[in-house]
Design goal:
Elements: H1 2-29, E1 39-43, E2 46-50, E3 54-58, E4 65-66, E5 77-81, E6 87-91, E7 98-100, E8 103-104, E9 110-112, E10 117-120, E11 123-128, E12 134-135, H2 144-165, H3 171-194, H4 201-220, H5 225-246, H6 249-254, H7 256-273, E13 275-277, E14 280-286, E15 289-291, H8 293-305, H9 315-335, H10 338-356, H11 359-379, H12 381-389, H13 402-414, H14 437-445, H15 447-470, H16 474-498, H17 516-532, E16 549-550, H18 555-586, H19 589-596
Parallel strand pairs: 3-4, 12-16
Antiparallel strand pairs: 1-2, 1-11, 3-5, 5-6, 6-9, 7-8, 7-10, 10-11, 13-14, 14-15
Length: about 625
C-alpha cells in the first residue's frame, strides 16, 4: 500500500507543478489592462491623457507626452504625481526652459494646480488635474484560493514522500515544518485579503520554490528542518515589511543614500572580518549564526539602483550609483566572491540600460568588465582553476570535475519522474544542497519538477517586464526588472555551472538552495516585484484612492463625469486666456523675445502641435503615441 501511495505521489507532484505554473502564468500574463488616466494636458484643441505618475514631456519618440514646438527638446520636462495626489513639473536641463504661470521652474520643481499654464520653450500647454479619474480595475480571473489549495496538496504529497524515505526520528520535525509552511502561506494570504490585496500569484510561486527548498533541507540535513522553517517565517515577515515600506514612494526614495551607506559598511565589515569558505571570504558570524553579507547587499543594490524619473537626469544621482557600484565590485573582488560579482555586474547592465536607454553605455560597461575579469582571473588562482576545468570535467572525475560529474550522473539517474524525495544519493556529495541543487531535485523529484523551478523564475521575469511597461513610477519598474535580472543570472549560474555549461561559480538557486541568507534576500527582492504589480488589488504600492471612482457602470455617473470635465475645460479656457493676456509682461526677456513678436494674446505661445501645417509632411508627428 505504501508503495502505491509513493508511486502516486511521484506523478501527482508533476501534475500539480504544471497546474500551479499554468494557473499563475494565466493570471499574471493574460489579464487585460485598461489605461489609467490621472490628468490631462491641453495642447491647443487637443487633449493628451496623462497615464503614468511619472511622464516625460518632449518631442522625442521616447516621450510619454509628445508635444512639438521650435523650443521643445526631445526630453524637455518631467511631470510627476506625488503619493498625496499633488502634481509637480521638473525641467530636465532643457534649452528653452519650463515656465508655470510666467515663473520659471527651478531645479527642484514646481507644484501644479488645475488649469495652470505651462510654457515649454515657447509652446504652451494647460494642465488639467482630473480629480475624478476613472482608473481600471484589472480582473484577477484565476482564483488564488484554488491555486493555493493546489499548492497545499503539492506540499502534502511531497511530505508523504519524505515520511516514506526518512528515518523514524525525523518524521515529526518534517511533518511540523511542512505544516507550518502551509499555515504560513494561508496567514499571509489572509492578511493580504484583509488589506484588499487579492492578487497572490507572486507569493504562490515564491512559496512553491520555498517548499522545494524545504524539501532539500529535509533530504540533506533533516536535523535543521525546524531551523529552516524559522528562516522561512523570518523571510516572509521581511517581505511584508519591505512591501509596506515601498507603499510610500517618497519615503522609499528618501532612504536611498542611507541604504547605500549601510551596504558599504556591511561589505567593509565583510572585507575586514569575513572568513573563507571554498575560496571566498564572504562569511560573517554573528550570535553563533553564519551569514553572507553579500546576500543582503543584493537587496540594497537594487534599492539604490532604482530611481524616480526626474532623478534620472540629475548628475549627482548618477554619480552616487556609479560610485556605489564600484565600491561593491571592489569589495567582492577583495573577498574573492566571483559568482556574486557576476550577478552584480549583470544587474548593473540592466539598471544602466533602464536608466540611460543607451546601448553604448552597456557596451562600455562590458568592455570594462572584460578587463576586470581578466585581472580577477590573474590574481585569484582558484578562479583560474574553475575556468580551466570548464568543459573538461570528465577528464578528472575524482578531483576538479568531481562535483559536476556527480551532478550530471544524478540528474540522468532521476529520469522524468525522479526517485522520490529523500531517496537520491547526490545529497551525500559536498555542496549538493546549495551549488548543485538543480541536479539534486532532478534526481529526487524528476526532470519535469526541476524544470518547473526554472519556469517559475521565467514567469516572474516576464511578469516584471510586462509590469515595467505600465509602471506608475520608474522606481518600481527599474527595481522589478533589476530584481529579476539578478535572480535569473543567479539561477543560470547555478544550473549551467553544475552541468558544466558555464564555469562552476558556487552561487545558489533562488529560494531552493539551502541557506538562510539567500532565502531572506530572495523574499525581500520579491517585494520590489510585488510593488511593481500595478493591478488594482494586487500591489503593495497601488491602492484605491478615495478620490477615484472604480467600475463606473451606471449611465448617470458617466454623464456626471462628462459634465464635470466640460465645466473644468471651460474654466481652464478662461484662465488660459487671462494668463496669455498678461504673459508678456510677466515673463523674463530671454523667454519671450521670439513669442512677443508673433501676437498680443494667444500667439504669445507659438503652437507647434502635430496637426500644424509645418508638420504636415512628417507623418510620425501627426499623432501622440506611447513609446
Amino acid at each position: 500500500m505504501q508503495e502505491i501511495i509513493f508511486s502516486i505521489s511521484r506523478y501527482a507532484l508533476i501534475c500539480l507543478s504544471l497546474v500551479i505554473l499554468f494557473r499563475c502564468l494565466r493570471s499574471l500574463l493574460s489579464d487585460r489592462y485598461e489605461t489609467e488616466v490621472w490628468a490631462y494636458l491641453k495642447v491647443g484643441k487637443n487633449i493628451l491623457p496623462v497615464t503614468h505618475w511619472e511622464n516625460i514631456i518632449g518631442k522625442g519618440a521616447s516621450a510619454d507626452l509628445r508635444v512639438f514646438g521650435p523650443g521643445i527638446g526631445r526630453t524637455h520636462a518631467v511631470l510627476k504625481r506625488r503619493d498625496n495626489g499633488v502634481w509637480e513639473i521638473y525641467d530636465v536641463f532643457s534649452k528653452g526652459g519650463v515656465w508655470v504661470n510666467g515663473e520659471r521652474v527651478p531645479h527642484y520643481g514646481t507644484e501644479l494646480a488645475d488649469g495652470d499654464l505651462i510654457n515649454l520653450g515657447g509652446s504652451c500647454v494647460t494642465f488639467l488635474d482630473e480629480k475624478y479619474t476613472e482608473a481600471y480595475e484589472s480582473e484577477i480571473r484565476v482564483s488564488p484560493v484554488t491555486t493555493l489549495i493546489e499548492l497545499g496538496i503539492f506540499q502534502i504529497f511531497l511530505l508523504i514522500q519524505h515520511m516514506y524515505s526518512c528515518e523514524a526520528c525525523y518524521v515529526v520535525p518534517i511533518i511540523v515544518s511542512f505544516a507550518l509552511v502551509i499555515l504560513l502561506e494561508w496567514i499571509l494570504y489572509g492578511a493580504m485579503h484583509l488589506l484588499g490585496r487579492n492578487g497572490f500569484e507572486v507569493e504562490i510561486l515564491s512559496f512553491y520554490l520555498t517548499t522545494l527548498g524545504l524539501s532539500v533541507a529535509a533530504s540533506s540535513t533533516p536535523d535543521d528542518v525546524i531551523k529552516q522553517i524559522i528562516l522561512i517565517s523570518a523571510s516572509v515577515l521581511l517581505f511584508a515589511i519591505c512591501g509596506w515600506w515601498q507603499s510610500s514612494l517618497k519615503r522609499t526614495t528618501a532612504m536611498r543614500i542611507p541604504v547605500a551607506v549601510f551596504a558599504v559598511l556591511l561589505l567593509g565589515l565583510n572585507v575586514i572580518s569575513g572568513y573563507s569558505v571554498n575560496g571566498a571570504a564572504n562569511w560573517l558570524t554573528f550570535g553563533g549564526y553564519s551569514f553572507q553579507p553579500s546576500e543582503l547587499v543584493k537587496v540594497c543594490y537594487v534599492y539604490v539602483g532604482a530611481s524616480t524619473l526626474e532623478m534620472l537626469y540629475k548628475k549627482n544621482n548618477l554619480y552616487v550609483f556609479i560610485g556605489f557600484s564600484a565600491v561593491c565590485v571592489m569589495a567582492l573582488a577583495l573577498i574573492g566572491d566571483f559568482g556574486t560579482a557576476v550577478i552584480f555586474f549583470a544587474t548593473f547592465l540592466v539598471i544602466s540600460f533602464l536608466r540611460s536607454g543607451s546601448i553604448a553605455t552597456v557596451i562600455l560597461a562590458l568592455t570594462g568588465a572584460g578587463l576586470a575579469g581578466f585581472l580577477a582571473v590573474s590574481v585569484k588562482p582558484y578562479i583560474l582553476r574553475r575556468f580551466e576545468t570548464w568543459g573538461h570535467v570528465w577528464e578528472d572525475v575524482y578531483d576538479t570535475g568531481y562535483q559536476q560529474t556527480r551532478a550530471m550522473s544524478a540528474l540522468a539517474s532521476g529520469g522524468v519522474i525522479g526517485k522520490g524525495a529523500g531517496s537520491g544519493w547526490l545529497k551525500s556529495i559536498f555542496a549538493a544542497n546549495t551549488d548543485m541543487v538543480f541536479a539534486m531535485e532532478a534526481e529526487e523529484l524528476g526532470l519535469i519538477v526541476a524544470l518547473s523551478m526554472i519556469f517559475a523564475m521565467i514567469i516572474l521575469a516576464f511578469f516584471a517586464v510586462r509590469m515595467a511597461k505600465r509602471g506608475r513610477s520608474s522606481f518600481y519598474a527599474i527595481a522589478a526588472c533589476a530584481t529579476m535580472a539578478m535572480l535569473l543570472t543567479q539561477m543560470a549560474l547555478n544550473v549551467f555551472g553544475s552541468l558544466d555549461i558555464l564555469p562552476f561559480t558556487g552561487v545558489t538557486f533562488p529560494f531552493v538552495s539551502r541557506g538562510g541568507s539567500s532565502l531572506i534576500s530572495c523574499w525581500m527582492l520579491m517585494a520590489f516585484l510585488k510593488s511593481a504589480d500595478n493591478r488594482v488589488g494586487a500591489s503593495f504600492a497601488v491602492r484605491k484612492s478615495p478620490g477615484m471612482i472604480f467600475d463606473i457602470d451606471e449611465q448617470d455617473e458617466e454623464e456626471q463625469q462628462q459634465d464635470d470635465f466640460e465645466d473644468n475645460d471651460d474654466e481652464a479656457d478662461d484662465e488660459y486666456d487671462d494668463l496669455i493676456g498678461s504673459f508678456e509682461g510677466e515673463a523674463e526677456d530671454n523667454y519671450i523675445n521670439d513669442a512677443s513678436e508673433k501676437a498680443e494674446d494667444k500667439s504669445n505661445c507659438s503652437w507647434r502641435f502635430f496637426d500644424d501645417d509645418e508638420y504636415q509632411d512628417e507623418p510620425d508627428k501627426k499623432e501622440v503615441r506611447r513609446k
